[in-house]
Amino acid sequence: MGGRILYCELYSTFATVLYLGHGGVQNMGGYYRFSIYEQASHNDKYQPPPVIYDYKIFNQMLFGKHRFVFLWSCFQGNTPGNNTPTPHGMAYCWTRQPDLSQDGYSSPDSRPYCFIGFQMASPRLSEYVKESTGNLFKHWLVFFYYYALNGDSINNALRKACETVGYAGGWLDPSNVLRVGFWTYFRPEFLPPGIPPSPDNRYQGWMKVFGNGNINLLWG
Question: For the chain, what percent of residues have pLDDT higher than 90?
Answer without folding.
Answer: 71
